[in-house]
Amino acid sequence: MSVLGEMFENFLSRPITILYPKEKVPIPAAFRGRVAIADDKCIGCSKCSLVCPAQVITMIDGPRDVEFKGKNLARKKRPQVKLFKCIRCGLCERHCPTGAIVLKNELSCSGTDGEIVLTE
Amino acid sequence: MTDPVFGLIYIFIFPGFLFLFIYALFFAFLDRKIASRMQQRVGPPFFQPFADFIKMLGKEVIDPAGVDRVIFDAAPLVALAAVMTAYLYVPIIGNSPLAFQGDLVVVLYLLSLPTLVLFLLGWLSRNIFSAIGGIRAITQLFIYEVPFFLALLTPALMAGTWSISEIVFWQQKNLWFVFLQPIGFIVALIGLQAKLERTPFDIPEAETEIVAGPWTELTGRRLAIMDLTIDVSLVVGSALVAALFLGGPLISWTITPAWLEGIIGFLLFLIKTLAVLLILSSIKVATGRIRIDQLNDIGWKYIASASLVQVGIVLVMNYLWVYA
Amino acid sequence: MPEVVVSIGPHHPALKEPVNFKIIADGEKIVRLELDLSYNHRGVEKAAEQRDFIRVLPLLERVCGICSHSHSTAFAQGIEEIMQIEIPPRARYIRTIIAELERMHSHLLWLGVAAHLIGFNTLFMWTWRDREAVQDTVEEMSGNRVHYNMNEIGGVRCDLTPAQVNAALARLPNLEERVNKYVDMVNYEETMLLRFRGVGRLSKEEALRYGTVGPTARASGIDYDTRKDDPYLAYADAPWNVVTDTNGDVYGRTRVRVWEIQESLRIVRYCLENLPEGAIRVPAPKNAPKGEILSRYEAPRGELAHFIRTNGTDRVERVDIRTPTLANWTSVAICLVNQNLADIPVIVAAIDPCLSCTSRITLVENQTKKAGVISFDELIRRYRSRNPEEV
User: Fold this and answer.
1) What is the spatial distance between Cα C5 and Cα C14, in angstroms, rounded to a whole number?
2) What is the mean pLDDT of residues B151-179?
3) Which of B117, B88, B134 is nearest to B232 (CA)?
4) Which fold does the domain C41-356 belong to in CATH?
5) CATH 3.30.70.3270 is held by the domain A27-103
6) Which of C334, C358, C335, C328 is closest to C16 using CA atoms?
């Protein structure tokens, strides 16, 4: 009998479906979305490339000057992420010593070139 | 029927086959929308069954190896023709111009044809799932048909006539049968739900057990026609129950201009069939499927005895009050 | 009708994953069952041997979608015990919270699937709607709805902020009310009782003899729950009870699972309210000392066992995963005999099968094209006959 009561209650009220994409749900801050790399913080230590379980991060040439722990260093390499093969596990973010590579809470990840990550 | 043009318009346009086609697909939409709102979902838009029908007509027809193609093409059409013919005898705006003594029996017979067609299709598709589904359809037919016929016989007994239109007339002069024979009304609704193979009686079509039963090998236009048959049966069944128990398209006082009476009768027809649909959809949402042996148990123990009790009560009432 | 072979699978609307049940049926009664489990084998155990401890955890998490945290935690626990490091209390509590949230969402999913299999789509829609509350909570805490990746060797990957804890606590009362309604529905709803009662009965002796675990065993009256018998994480601190039932049929298993959701709610509430302060991880060494360990964990489906052998490097030498579904398959074959054809999906679903966890290898002989399963001794004999120099 409780089924009947709830059925008629539901019949007279609004459905709970969220009509995406017209209505949107707020995405939590901890959501593991698209990868982003900050060039000015990255010291090219290759740790992200070593811990990635799916092996989608490769280190390429990218000479630049970075400030790290008060000193100015000339670094040589920077990471490159295959965006569409990334499984968004968050291990690179966890093991990065400077917080240069992060997973933003962006839900959609579409693009035309599937291989490279642009820096922000 | 004096005017052949009037007859043709009645049969083919309004309230004939064109109106039936639109109303049947609209009923299918309403059924799905009510069910989904009760589950707190949004449900399909109003043109969904129309779109499904048109899309299905254009799909490829796949014939399994070794299957008789002629019967596979003809059987759904026979089922559709049967229920569309049954529709013509049900009163929609007043009494049906094709009414005659005994049309109740003809309607009941024609409404059983789709189940026989499903059994035939299940048996002829060389597929174990369809065979099991076809056998379940026929077993279910045997179980619910007896109480269903008896429950629809009792209004005829009390009104003293075999014509649906005259039963409606009788109700206009006296009480609606839903008040005089409530047990019969309930048995008729359960029987209708079993005839249309809807939950809790969708045993022949159990998707999670036997894929789709006799519907497994139907594709393309055959599936479109068979789906339309079930939708039309829903309309005819609701209209029959509305006519026999809820007074049909007539109200207890007569209204003087004949065209106004026609319009009011049509509106009453719509309201009463929608009320029956609401009850049937609620039953569909509130229950799960039962097994065929449990249906055997419940059908013969409770439903058939309830209908026999109802027949007995009607005979007693006839003797004491109606024909005293 | 004479005996026919009704093949449920590998593609069938009743199945969520590919498996082949060859049912030999006589009319509507089942005579025999032949089972083929090999369709989802992906070679995870071999792949795990080639990844070091940081990279192997996401791989093991992806053995299954619904019990992902179970595999990851069981492995992490085992390695931590071999390395002899102790994770801080806050990490233990966070692991427990995620584990119990996973159990709740798995049981709610199961309830919906069981209702769908008997054609009761209303309950399916309602339970999956309420499951969204649990999924929203885990998404806020870990970043994803499945595959939480909360574990690492030595603790957890990320912390719970007070805002997350309060948001989770705010969702619990409504969920509790809904689950109480489902307990009522399971016990009193007519069509569910008709379809679940007396179906697939497994007595206590049969359950013990065929090695069933999890809610399947607890529904037959066996008081066996790894969280109480071999406590790990925070289960010794939180107040909760083991749920058993004496019915032993699908009805009993349904009742056990719905009551377990209520117990999980109690554990989650206790852990959220009493979350200890402190670090969330301890530094772990790169290599693990040589050793063998059997790590046990109570997954939503039963007792999960990881056998791990390490050899002093930064990878495992062998990990063998014995999932609860594998232990429960024999009971399905036993309780399917003499039941109706219409009850097959319900009986199979009552053990909550997770075929991604289970798949074992089937051998196909190329010349004769016969398929079969061979025993462990036969496997050793074939290996030795092909590699005589290694013997």
Assistant:
1) 17
2) 88
3) B88
4) Cytochrome-c3 Hydrogenase; chain B (1.10.645)
5) yes
6) C358
DSSP C352: -
Between CA B86 and CA B98 the distance in angstroms is: 11
Residue B246 scores a pLDDT above 60: yes
Nearest to A89 among C126, C140, C149 (CB): C149
Q: Is the bond into A21 cis (omega within 30 degrees of 0)?
A: yes
Tokens of C245: 């039932």
pLDDT of B118 over the 70 cut: yes
Q: Pick from C59, C129, C157: which is nearest to A53 by CB?
A: C59
Put simply, whether C32 touches A (Cβ < 8 Å) is no
Handedness of CA B113, B119, B124, B130 (dihedral sign): positive
Domain residue limits, chain A: 27-103
Q: How far is CA B180 from CA B174, B185, C119, in A?
A: 10, 9, 35
pLDDT tens digits for B302-318? 999 999 999 999 999 88
Segments making up each domain of chain C, as ranges: 41-356
What is the amino acid identity at position B246? L
How large a percentage of chain A has pLDDT more than 70? 89
Residues of B in contact with A10 (CB under 8 A): 37-40
Contact B291 C117 (CB under 8 A): no
Q: Which of C257, C266, C245 has its CA nearest to residue C112?
A: C257
> Distance from C368 to chain B by nearest Cα, in Å?
28
**Of C66-75, C219-228, C341-350, minimum mean pLDDT range:** C341-350
- CA–CA separation, B257 and B227 (whole Å): 40
Res B186: pLDDT: 93
pLDDT value at position A114?
A: 59
Whether B38 and A7 lie within 8 Å, measured CB to CB: yes
Question: Do the Cβ atoms of B164 and B104 come closer than 8 Å?
Answer: yes
Which residue in A has a C-alpha nearest to residue C142's C-alpha? Answer: A30
Test B286 with A8 for CB contact under 8 angstroms.
no
Asked if the C-beta of A30 comes within 8 angstroms of chain C's C-beta atoms, the answer is: yes
**Minimal Cβ distance to B128: which of C6, C125, C340:** C6
Cβ distance A10 to B42 less than 8 Å, yes or no, reads: no
**Residue environment code for C101-137, b if the CB has 16+ CB neighbours within 10 A, otherwise e:** bbbbbbbbbbbbbbbbbbbbbbbbbbbbbbbbbbbbb
C-alpha distances in Å from residue C379, one per residue of A91, C362, C371: 38, 12, 15
Residue of B nearest to A17 (CA): B41
**pLDDT averaged over chain C?**
87
pLDDT band with cut points at 50, 70 and 90 for residue C364: low
**Tens digit of pLDDT for each residue in B252-284?**
777 677 778 888 888 889 999 999 999 999 999
Q: Report B:125-144 residues touching A (Cβ under 8 A).
A: none
Amino acid at C76: A
Q: How many other C-beta atoms can be found within 10 angstroms of the C-beta atom of residue B69?
A: 10
Contact between C129 and B286 using a beta-carbon 8 Å cutoff:
no
pLDDT value of position C247: 86
Strand C29-36, strand C20-26: pairing: antiparallel
* pLDDT tens digits, one per residue of C203-259: 999 889 888 999 999 999 999 898 988 888 889 888 999 999 998 899 999 999 999
At residue B64, the pLDDT reads 86
CB C326 within 8 A of CB C355: no
